[in-house]
Design brief:
The chain has about 300 residues and is of the alpha+beta class. Helices cover about 35% and strands about 25% of the residues.
Length: about 300
Amino acid sequence: MEKRFYSNGKLLITGEYAVLDGALSLAVPTKYGQSLTVKEIDQPQILWKSLDKNGAIWFEEIFELNNLKPITTLKDLDKKTIKETLVCILMEAKKMNPEFLKSKTGFEIHTQLNFPRDWGLGSSSTLINNIAQWAKVDAYQLLWNSFSGSGYDIACAQHNSPILYQLKKELPEVKEISFSPNFKNQLFFIHLNKKQNSRDAITNYRKQNFDEKTLLLKVTQITKKMIAASTLSKFESLMFQHEKVLSNILKVKPVKERLFNDYFGAIKSLGAWGGDFILVTGNKKTPEYFISKGFNTVISYSDMVL
């Protein structure tokens, strides 16, 4: 018998960094995500294969079922880190549900992304949400037991429409909203050709000295105004305000100033500054501008957002 689980990828439109401390934030689930397929096998092992969007194996390991001990010794440092992360998630899921993996038969597991691994759309959060579904445990708690983070990515994994996300007393509040502005055909997502390490970026944010209450208030107000914006110019103004607020705190120039000073539209970082996707406003000339600068992944709002 085969079971299949699926989770949506994510993009954080407002509230990067500040979402961790309780700012109201706008997030969108993407049409891209990750599946996890579970098949029972006779031997007491977990045969794990992670596939990329083309079906090629990028990680493979066999674990003993009872203690999750790997059968092989991986020399590759990246693969070793992936293995340790995976074991950590599975062990935490077992602690949360002692019945999980408590069987005499083992499992063949296939995970598959339908987006490139370096896109930063949530290969970890979609995996955690899929494992949580399989283990029948709370995905937010599994995330926080295994790593850290605000949990907005878990909310996107579970919801099929844009959401407002906020941590209140360390508990997630999620509200599905209808966010389909009449100018959405003038919104694009551009990949910056590198994946940003969220944990490093969060560490840098935590080192800064600023008035947290003021930041949360400003970002929450921008989020509320953004979802209500009826014109592109109002939306662009709010994108600019958001960039300015975070730039002052992070002591980093906004991405438009750094890389695209001659671009005619507005540009906003998404998530950890310095990598992954940016949101830009523009027109039919937008793709050729970014492609001419060497940024070939240009995706329209409608093609990206669920």
